[in-house]
Amino acid sequence: MCDDPCALATPIPSVWACHPTALRTDRNGAVTNRYLHGPEVDHVFADQSAEDGLLWALADHQGTVRDWADYDAATDTTTVADHLKYDSFGNIASQSSSTHKPHFAYTGREWDPDAGMYYYRARWYDPATGQF
After folding, report:
1. What is the DSSP string of 11-77?
2. pLDDT (tens digit, 0 to 9) for every residue of the chain, 132 residues total?
3. How many domains, in total, are found in the chain?
4. Is residue 50 included in any domain, yes or no?
5. Is 55 inside a domain boundary?
6. Rounded to 10 degrees, what is the CA torsion of 52, 57, 58, 59?
7. Quick check: 128 and 93 in contact, CB under 8 A?
């Protein structure tokens, strides 16, 4: 486990597998989220948490996660658990779920709600100003 050394706000411990975040933990070290990543850079497949269960990321051509889908194996149905709309700079303009807090969003990058910025590995992006 490690804390992001670039964090602007109070760091949240994460476990890194190569680069993508594989696990997120709370301040006590308990796992809160597990992530499944694809073979491409910034390609998140799924997010599993106690609150939301297993949600599958549906992204556009830029890697921006537009929908988080829930698959029900018992009924063989898929429903959109959360639909996100963004403005041109990556601000979430609307979100259908009031409880889901996506960690991966605009261009597949990690969102830090405390900082109000996306983490692009070596730098932070502020969607409010459109600047790194």
Report:
1. ---EEESSSSEEEEE-TTS-EEEEEEE-SSTT-EEEEEETTTEEEEEEE-TT--EEEEEEEETTTTE
2. 444 444 434 445 555 445 568 888 888 989 999 999 988 888 899 999 988 899 999 999 999 999 999 999 999 999 999 999 999 999 999 999 999 999 999 999 999 988 999 999 889 999 999 999
3. 1
4. yes
5. yes
6. 130
7. no
What SS3 class is residue 7? coil
Q: What domain range includes position 35?
A: 14-125
In a domain, 9, yes or no: no
Q: Are the beta carbons of 104 and 97 closer than 8 angstroms?
A: no
CA nearest to 87, candidates 105, 69, 114, 99: 105
Q: What is the pTM of this model?
A: 0.79
Tokens, residue 132: 């790194």
Degrees to nearest 5, angle at CA 52 with 32 and 17: 40
